[in-house]
């Protein structure tokens, strides 16, 4: 698995405050890497350092296996980005804006139409950008970032302000990029639900620090499983389970137990029934990803 982006102890301080604090990112080829964190966590600052728009206070950025500080031009020629709101000439059409980008990036004519097709704007390309909806503008911004068919695409909150249909379209589009065009994507968001649906790898940043990095599956497996029992006499059932060396917790009308295997659940059920306590429900409960995110960042997943 080739590493596309790697940072070592990447740090940015503004005065005495570290906005980004010793961050070690690893983004692999073919990833849709979701960079998740609440507002002000340090996402944009990190992405800007990856693009040379902000100078790190400390640490190292390596992209495509090359030191960014020594290979800036080469790396940027193979990287597309959309940071904050895209800027356009509103009095020109989508197509004309794309042509300007084409000449700036010095890429073949055919890339203009191909990129417009990918973002499904080919039919509206002759409209003036002033008359574009927010979703169309976001898609045009992505088309501009794609115009050179880069190896790496960096998108800072690309679905901000879009309605659910617009978000769905951008999600599909981004997910198709690695297998259709071999583009690795790094996308930031403050919405857990969005990253969960779009990314296969995830990094969670909170107050400038990377508090989790791994696959989406690894994140899901961190959400702990517990068994919840509802009986017709929870107080008595609790006493019996405590006597058996278990540590039940009485919460919201349920007795909950952590780390019990299936065969133990069956045994507990049998014991309770034998002592004359009816078991009304046995459920497996998982701490939601939402709660996990809250614990890791101390913030709501969507602010
Ligand atoms: N130029 C700057 N000067 C001083 N502080 C800054 C500057 N840029 C960012 N910061 C601070 O760095 C911290 C991280 O900001 P950043 O924009 O990277 O967060 P973010 O995760 O992208 O948040 P959001 O989702 O709100 O954009 C914030 O506390 C912000 O106020």
Automatic annotation (TrEMBL):
Keywords: ATP-binding, Nucleotide-binding, Transport. Gene3D superfamilies: P-loop containing nucleotide triphosphate hydrolases. Pfam families: ABC_tran. Residues 5-232 form the ABC transporter domain. One of its GO terms (molecular function) is ATP hydrolysis activity. Belongs to the ABC transporter superfamily. This is ABC transporter ATP-binding protein. It comes from Paenibacillus lutimineralis.
């Amino acid at each position: 698995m080739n590493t596309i982006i790697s940072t070592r102890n990447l740090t940015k301080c503004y005065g005495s405050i570290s906005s980004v604090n010793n961050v070690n990112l690893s983004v692999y080829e073919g990833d849709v890497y979701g960079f998740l964190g609440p507002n002000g966590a340090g996402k944009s600052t990190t992405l800007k350092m990856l693009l040379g728009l902000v100078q790190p206070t400390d640490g190292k950025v390596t992209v495509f296996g090359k030191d960014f500080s020594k290979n800036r031009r080469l790396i940027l020629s193979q990287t597309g980005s959309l940071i904050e709101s895209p800027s356009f000439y509103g009095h020109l059409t989508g197509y004309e804006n794309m042509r300007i980008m084409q000449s700036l990036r010095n890429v073949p004519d055919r890339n203009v139409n191909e990129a417009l097709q990918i973002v499904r704007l080919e039919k509206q390309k002759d409209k003036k950008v002033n008359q574009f909806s927010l979703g169309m503008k976001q898609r045009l911004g992505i088309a501009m970032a794609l115009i050179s068919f880069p190896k790496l695409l960096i998108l800072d909150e690309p679905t901000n302000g879009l309605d659910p249909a617009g978000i769905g379209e951008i999600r599909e589009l981004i997910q198709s990029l690695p297998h259709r065009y071999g583009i690795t994507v790094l996308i930031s968001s403050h919405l857990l639900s969005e990253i969960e649906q779009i990314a296969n790898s995830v990094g969670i940043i909170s107050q400038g620090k990377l508090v989790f990095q791994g696959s989406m599956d690894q994140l899901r497996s961190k959400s702990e499983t517990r068994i919840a029992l509802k009986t017709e006499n929870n107080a008595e059932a609790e006493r019996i389970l405590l006597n058996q060396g278990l540590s039940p917790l009485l919460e919201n009308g349920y007795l909950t137990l952590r780390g019990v295997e299936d065969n133990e659940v069956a045994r507990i059920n049998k014991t309770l029934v034998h002592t004359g306590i009816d078991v009304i429900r046995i459920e497996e409960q998982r701490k939601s990803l939402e709660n996990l995110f809250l614990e890791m960042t101390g913030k709501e997943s969507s602010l």
